[in-house]
Each structure stands twice: as C-alpha cells, then as structure tokens.
Amino acid sequence: MTPPDTLIRRQAFVGGLWCDALDGRRLAITDPADGSEICEVAHLSREDAKRAIGCAAEALPAWRARPAAERAAFLRRWADLVLESIEPLAKLLTREQGKPLAEARAEIAQAAAFLGWFAEEARRVYGDLIPAPRADRRTLVLKQPVGVVAAITPWNFPAAMVARKVAPALAAGCTLVLKPAPQTPLSALALAVLAEAAGLPPGVLNIIPGEAEPIGNALIDSHAVRKLTFTGSTAVGRQLLARSAATLKRVSLELGGNAPFIVFADADLDAAVEGAIESKFRNSGQTCVCANRLLVEDSIYDAFSARLAARAKALVVAPGLAPGSQQGPLIDQSAVDKVEALIADAVDKGARVLTGGGRHVLGGTFFQPTVLTEATADMQLCQAEIFGPVAPLYRFHTENEAVALADATPFGLASYVYSSDLGRALRVGEALQCGMVGINVGAMSTETAPFGGVKDSGFGREGSMYGIDEYLDLKYLSLDLSAR
Ligand code: SIN
C-alpha cells in the first residue's frame, strides 16, 4: 500500500497554510533504496523562514494563554490520529529514509508516544511558593513558555525527532518553526497534516523544508526566536551555539556520539550479542546512540566475536519495504564512502574482517553488516562516529581499563554495559562520562526517560518529566502584602 495522497505534501506549512517557496524553488526527495524520485517539495529560503517566524510570533499570545488542558487535549487527539495512520506514515518514512518497515512502525509509535506523554506533562507544569524572607512578603515562582522555538531535526529519525521536540514545546505553550532535514521532509509534513486535523491553530507549528544554512541562520539571528533545539552533528551544533550568542537564545543540542558497548566476561553472552545487534545495526547503524566501539573482555573475546559475526551475517539486507528486511540502505553515497574509508583505514592498521567489509551485492547504498576484530585506538573509527553498520571490537583486561577506554573520547551520549554482576554494572554505569547507560539493555530510547548527552554530545534533555523544562522559563514574583 502506498501512503494516501492526503499524507504526502509537497508544500511547506506556514501560518496554517500549505505554500510554496517565495522564489518557487523545489527539491527532489529520493528513495534511498533505489534512488528514484518520490516527489519534489518546496525548498524554502531565508525570506520564507522570516515569514514563518512572524506567523509563530503572532500565534504565540493566544496559544500560551490557552488552558493547559486544551493544549493537552490537542496533543492527545494528534497522538491518536498518528496511531490511526501508523501504516501509511511508516511506509512514507521507509520510502524517504530507507529503514526497514518494522523499524519505521516502531518510530511512528514512538512519535505518538512523545505526543501522548507531553499531553500529560502539559497539565503538570507546577510553580512554587517559597518561604519568604519577611512576614509581609510572598515569593512565587511561575513557569512560563520561553516563546517562539526553532527546531532543526535530522534525517535518521524523521518522525520521532520531530515529535520529541514539538510535543514538549507545544505542551509548554510555545509556538514553533521547524526545519526538517532536506533528505526527509515528508514525514514531518505528514505529521503536520494530522496536527491540522487534530485542531492545530494557524501559526502554532510551522514546517519549513529548505536550505540548511540560510534557514538556520534566519532562525538563529531572529530575536523573536527565544529557543533553539537541534539534533545533528557536533560540528554544526558548535556553529549554531556560537551564532546563538548574539541573541542569547536558550539552546539544547543533541549531538554526535561514540558509544562504548562494554561486555564483561560474566555477561550473559547470548543477551550481549542480541543487545549488540540491536544497538549497532538498528537503522543500519545510523543512530547517534549506536554502539560505536565494542569493548570485550579478553577471556570471552573470541567467543563473543564469533557469535556476533554469525548473527550479523544472518541479518537480512533488503529495501526497507521488502518483506523481512532487517537492514535497509544507507542514506546516501557519501555515507557509503565514509564507512568504506573507515574500514580501509582500520584494515590497513591491523583490523580483521570477520564478516562483511564492503558494499552489498544489492548495489546503490546497501552495505554489508560488518564485524571487525583487533580494533585499536589509533584507527580512525575509534574516534569518528561511524554512522554505518560496522562493529569494531576492542579488547580489555580489567574493569578500570574498560572504563578508561570507554571514556577516551570527547563524546558522551550513550554507553552500554553487559555484566551479570549488578554491583559492577552500577559502579561502571555511575563512572562513565555520558548522559545515558544501558545496563544489559541494547536500546533505551523512550518517551519516559531523559535523552541527552554531556561533553561533545551536547546538553539539554528530551522526553521524560524533565523534557518540558527545556521550553519553560522561571519567573519569580515577590509580593509585598502590606502594600496598598
Ligand atoms: C538518535 O538520535 O540518533 C537516536 C534516537 C533514538 O534512539 O531514539
């Protein structure tokens, strides 16, 4: 079944209207599985972005004044509509992004879960009454929406990352301008179709596909935009943060990762292999929480690597819409080139290819699930975010060595620890320099928990009861009771 036409939009969504770029430009969106064109979408520029900011600013007073229960009811309706359309939304997502349909369904369900979660959180934005320093004073703390928010979302999760940002912002009473990744705007636009159907007022959410730099700069340079939320590379995050200084915006950055996946000798090996498969090969290795370095205790290194290689080799590589597909194509040719170069460098420096190692016979951007042993710290893939289906295995001998190796990177997003010794797992989990640790768990992203990193992986948290705070300012009222 192809997605119904009503869900495929070729125009931007600004001020409650579907519209083209002011200069009429369009960009072809292609299916990474075969390079075919899906459709052309409006490709907006700086002037369009300014117009969208104006719409969001105009819509702000009425939206933030709505009772929280009304904003919550809208988000709930939206979540329900997303769930009702899970099949066509998942198919659209697979077509523009490439991931297997089963993963796309899970992503759409996750997007709905973010909308539903923040529908509930909208009603729990409590303030405080703080004991005052004098008998005739009262100290009140209010939480108020930050204002207009700019969101920039990535291509690897074209629906869930949109919902993870939009839901808390709207719940808090903010309005938004969202720029989806140029490769994958269709899922964001389809979500907007359903938001409209759920009763979204004009201007509250604006989706502007288009040119990354001019649009990004317009959003950041605008004083009307009070908050930027970005998911993407560390290099771009740094530039956005530096440029945000001029308008002193609040910023949250969910940036790159280099997740260590530590397997101790006392781990349940079957569970560790399954966890590694899930963590490494989900979305063809194109997630920022993917296991990037598998650190395996020396005494089980050979057994673990043999089992992992057998499981990786058995993964079904096929177009995402093909029945049984477990690994789709990479997003584009430059992703393939990067992965290939990292493998060549590693092999040159002594890594052994246990399985995979090159392009897949399907051609295009399909790549073989790859397991490399004897990886070492001098290889480029030890420091780089691989963003592809390549699992390099490193050896360690002691717990301290494992933690030191794990932390020997500027990144600090996710880490994974496999051990049947709960004391050790907790000790290591507490020690690791990162924002999230999976303990005997290979995939931990959920709407109920705070997602985010430290160090070069950025700051700010998404999801959970903390996620809405990113879109709220504290205001303190000092009240003199004796004043007339
Ligand atoms: C990512 O941001 O790349 C990972 C998102 C997720 O695991 O939900």
Question: Would you mind describing this structure in some detail?
Answer:
By secondary structure, the protein is α/β, with parallel strands linked by helices. The protein is built from 14 helices and 20 strands. The strands form 5 sheets. The protein has a 7-stranded mixed sheet with strand order 14-15-16-13-12-17-18, with helices on both faces. Strands 9-8-7-10-11-19 form a 6-stranded mixed sheet, with helices on both faces. β15, α12 and β16 (390-396) form a beta-alpha-beta unit. α9 (269-281) packs across α10. It is globular and about 80 Å long. The mean pLDDT is 97. Succinic acid is lined by residues 156-157, 160, 231, 287-289, 445.
